[in-house]
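Input (structure):
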């Protein structure tokens, strides 16, 4: 019997995670036809709390639930909430494939934000990849030839805030417990969305509540699968698996929402994906080369 390599296992786990995330997004698109993104995010936070608390209760890592970097942790909570609301709104008004094509620009924005926030240097190769990737986003948006809507702006805002979330995580991730980051992000969603609920709330019948609970469970399950994938495989293998979502976007969009992505959307997505994969590859290579230099210095 052939044994599967850790990288192959990690890639399969990541593919499963992003299939679950895509299914989760399709259900959100269904609910967003009736309910505000604010109400959807609030319900996901509400029903996700027991799952997160159960995970925290079984976490044997030493430490408290008080953040060491409270300002950054709370800012991260704001960006998580903002990214969710904007993304869910974009799914409610745009074809799934178009939303994903724009959200795939997140790694490009992470590269740009890493300069002022993390003090990293971006070489000309990665810089050129970012420019190419942004051109791919423009191909999807087609300013001047297609009408830009609030949905497109929401998708861009979601990508930008998602990038900020990732950069903050990289900045404080080594100092904060995963449980702290998860709990405070969930608390931010719950408090912020709860404050706005009186203006957007609509009563939810039992079947819709059941779908909300399923969405919260799917988000939690997909998150766990991503964590397992990164534990078993290299980031350069796991990260590009996210781009499989464009396939599910086309499948779900065609089957359930009568959406047919046009050639320009697919072309723009291909450009963004290619630049994102290149950036991930360059980042992994840079870390390997840096590790080699460090190892040599200790010899």
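Output (sequence):
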């Amino acid at each position: 019997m052939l044994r599967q390599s850790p990288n192959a296992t990690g890639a399969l786990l990541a593919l499963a995670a992003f299939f679950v995330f895509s299914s989760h997004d399709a259900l959100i698109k269904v609910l967003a036809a009736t309910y505000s993104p604010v109400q959807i995010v609030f319900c996901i936070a509400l029903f996700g709390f027991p799952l997160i608390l159960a995970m925290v209760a079984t976490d044997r890592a030493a430490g408290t639930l008080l953040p060491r970097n409270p300002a950054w942790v709370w800012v991260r909570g704001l960006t998580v909430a903002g990214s969710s609301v904007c993304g869910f709104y974009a799914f409610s008004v745009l074809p799934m494939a178009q939303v994903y094509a724009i959200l795939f620009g997140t790694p490009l924005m992470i590269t740009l934000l890493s300069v002022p926030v993390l003090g990293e240097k971006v070489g000309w190769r990665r810089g050129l990849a970012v420019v190419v990737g942004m051109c791919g986003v423009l191909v999807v948006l087609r300013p001047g030839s297609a009408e830009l809507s609030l949905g497109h702006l929401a998708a861009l805002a979601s990508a930008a805030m998602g990038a900020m979330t990732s950069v903050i995580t990289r900045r404080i991730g080594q100092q904060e417990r995963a449980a702290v980051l998860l709990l405070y992000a969930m608390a931010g969603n719950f408090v912020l969305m709860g404050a706005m609920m009186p203006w957007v709330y609509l009563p939810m019948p039992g079947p819709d509540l059941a779908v909300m609970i399923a969405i919260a469970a799917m988000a939690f399950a997909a998150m766990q699968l991503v964590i397992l994938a990164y534990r078993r495989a290299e980031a350069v293998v796991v990260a590009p698996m996210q781009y499989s979502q464009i396939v599910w976007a086309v499948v779900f969009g065609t089957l359930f929402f009568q959406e047919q992505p046009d050639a320009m959307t697919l072309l723009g997505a291909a450009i963004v994906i290619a630049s994102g994969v290149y950036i991930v590859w360059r980042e992994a290579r840079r870390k390997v080369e840096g590790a080699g230099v460090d190892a040599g210095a200790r010899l």
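Notes: Confidence is low (pLDDT under 50) at residues 288-299. DSSP finds twelve helices and no strands in the chain.
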